[in-house]
Description:
Number of domains: 3
Oligomer: single chain
Amino acid sequence: MGPCQIIDGVEEMIGVCGATADTVAARNFARVVASGTAAHTDHAREMVRGFLETAKGHGPHQIKDVEKLKALAEVFGIVTEGRETQEIAVELGERALAEFGKQDNEPISMLKRAVPKRQAIWKKLGIAPRGIDREVVEMMHRTHMGVDQDYQNIMLQASRCALADGWGSSMLSTELTDIMFGTPVPRRAVVDLGSLKPDQVNICVHGHEPLLAESLCIAAQDKDMIAMAKKQGAKGINLVGVCCTGNEILMRRGIPVAAGFVQQEIVISTGAVEAMVGDVQCIMQSLGEVAKNFHTDIITTNYRAKMPGAIHIQFEEEAALESAKGILAHAINNYKKRGKFFIPKEEKVDVVVGFSHETINYMLGGSFRASYRPLNDNIINGRIRGVAAIVGCDNFHLDDDAHEVIARELIKNNVLVLATGCAATSLGRAGLANPEAAKYCGDSLREVCEAVGMPPVLHMGSCVDNSRILVAATQMVKQGGLGDDISDLPAIGTAPLWMSEKAVAIGQYFVASGAQVVFQDLPTTGAKEFNKYLLEGLMGPLGAHWNVAKKPLEIARLMISAIDSKREALGINKKKDRVLFDMDMRRDLGAGVPDAGCQGHK
């Protein structure tokens, strides 16, 4: 009578209540999706609240991307013409906050950004999310004992819950963060431990919510804070990032990332860190034990996430700058306590980051012809074989070089890679997230990268920023030439070293959006029918399914095979040479084809 367990080797296992292994596994899988969605949702809610306070003129932040503000306002049906920026922002913030608690059956607003075919699939299946919080609550209820006992029906709600994350909370968080702090643009930066400085106060910002990190960035530039550091004998204040907060400030400010998830203890063990400041998610409890050996203080700042052995200084959003200065002052006072330390000199790798949807659009077409047309054309003519996303966590338990092995095999085979989260940090450390890495590409992808000056691995931000990939994929479909749904694109994603529930929620919202995903394992193998449904059966209703491959090269080759299958279905599986059209050829194309001379694949 609980907790339900599946015992390997026991065939036809049935619980006392009659629940089958498939029911048990489906419930557990769906609860993982709900947990991951809840983590992104709670993060996003704080960002929306922070945005609304900024819109009202409170705090140190401001509306930086007015154009994106107006574009998002239109998605919510908000009139922008003739209105002040602040007025638009306040209404947008209020409407965005209402998305979390919606109680009617109308879909959440951001779903309108999806292509019509995908919206029709969601409507037919009854999985268009209503309120963001509502879908998490319903998922938890339906997986309680004695409620939903049909694994296929459970997975419909798991899809709706995950979509509330990808097209709801995560997308809201990314878009509003861009509007408030600035949409990322390409910039060179540094990753790894070499970003620590021997003669400055080193403060690591760890976690996921950019409100804290951005406030610390502003406070660290305050002349009184700098004077305080110099009084302690330091030359200044050096902020570095850890995990996804690191990716946020890396993308927008070029502030270096010292470590991803699995390296967070190593940063402290250099002995050069005065404080590690965290908010929520992916912060190891072991940090407190490691810090006991050094002068470093672990500072928690969010009432949701306290830790034994840490110092708690609550970050008050209504007094963000004052809170940030208090945290910095505590760290600065630790500088004189620093003993022996070691900062690896060679651990310093250049990366180019900042590839938002808007950046990719501009990069390919320029100011006057910003467009996904060049990307689509290069996929159609075979110079770019397809697009692959490498996202999610890193993990002690699995191959520590998996991200690099997969990425190298993909770009060698002319597949463009998009990366987020700790996977992006890992690929940055491997030297694959800068334009110089084009030398590792196949001939045709190298030609494209060198022509545009872009890396073959595009760093797109934190784990919540996977919504950028949804937007980019949708724009590729809308541009034309690659089918009429995400499920038609020669594209696939992987989170090979996942360890967090968030990664499973991300995987499910990509599958529910029509994109294939591949993981190294799933906690479902003891339930034969349900496992088969994930790996095959979801293709029927959703047009995509989960895949599992054990080794990094196996994952890469599965991804390439899936891309080739999509190319074949589109009829573009053979590489086509560029054709320069003369006037007679242009006339033959017909007057109804715009820009015919620029579309050599026609």
